[in-house]
Amino acid sequence: MAKKSLGISAFAASAASAALLLGTAPAQAGGCYGSSCRPAPCQGAACYNLVETPPVYGTIAETQVVRPAKTYRRIVPAEYDYVTEKVMIQPARQIPHHVPAQYSSIQEKVLISPGGKRWEVTTDAYGRTTGCWVYDEPQYGYRQRTVEVSPARVEYETVPAVYTQRQRKVMVRPTQVLHETVPAQYETRHRKVLVSPGSQHWQKAGH
């Protein structure tokens, strides 16, 4: 723009000088007065008018970032739940029970005298001595006897294990870190720009 302004100024200065030079003779001859020239008395003179062209502006659309993209980190805590399980609170065990021996009384026949033959000497009423073999029958009797029916022993009683149910806290899902990205936000804005700069030039009068 600075260079163009200088060019127009130089051209304007030279054109003005030329106009002054060209207009001097007719003016002295009485043909041109000021900036207006009359065709009849201005033969051989040239007059110029300064013409200005205004600058031309236009509008362009530009996409600009209103808010840049941003990533957020979100922590999702671990998730827990309760499960029911069967647990043993007392194991199975055996309790010993001592059973004493069992006795009973029985009656049995026993030999008291085996009997047999024996020599027996007797004296009768007349004073005579007589010897005889005497046969005795065996003699039996009965007696009570205590016998052991069953010996002493140890019997074991089995007590089953005792169980119960309880709830236990378990982790179903561990802690997670989630990343969420919010996209950038854009906006279209219009801006006025210079399409063509303004200009100045000298145009011959009457054209």
Please give a structural write-up.
The protein is mainly beta and 207 residues long. It is built from 1 helix and 16 strands. The protein has one helix at 2-29; strands at 32-33, 36-37, 48-53, 56-67, 70-76, 79-90, 93-99, 102-113, 116-123, 129-136, 139-150, 153-159, 162-173, 176-182, 185-196, 199-204. The strands form 8 sheets. Strands 1-2 form a two-stranded antiparallel ribbon. A two-stranded antiparallel ribbon has the order 3-16. Strands 4-15 form a two-stranded antiparallel sheet. The longest helix has 28 residues, at 2-29.
List keywords for this structure.
207 residues, mainly beta, two-stranded antiparallel sheet, disordered N terminus, signal
Give the gist of this structure:
This protein has 207 residues and is mainly beta. It has one helix spanning 2-29; strands at 32-33, 36-37, 48-53, 56-67, 70-76, 79-90, 93-99, 102-113, 116-123, 129-136, 139-150, 153-159, 162-173, 176-182, 185-196, 199-204. The protein has a domain at 2-58 and 195-204.
Quaternary structure classification: single chain
Structural class by helix and strand composition: mainly beta
Read across the widest sheet, the strand sequence of neighbours is 1-2
N- to C-terminal distance: 27 Å
Order of helices and strands: HEEEEEEEEEEEEEEEE
Largest sheet geometry = 2 strands, antiparallel
Low-confidence stretches: 1-42
Strand content: over 45%
Round the Cα radius of gyration to an integer and report it.
76 Å
Give the overall pLDDT as a whole number: 80
What form results from the Cα inertia axes? rod-shaped
In which range does the helix fraction lie? 10-25%
Tell me how many strands there are. 16
* Number of continuous helical runs: 1
Keywords: Signal
Signal peptide: 1-29
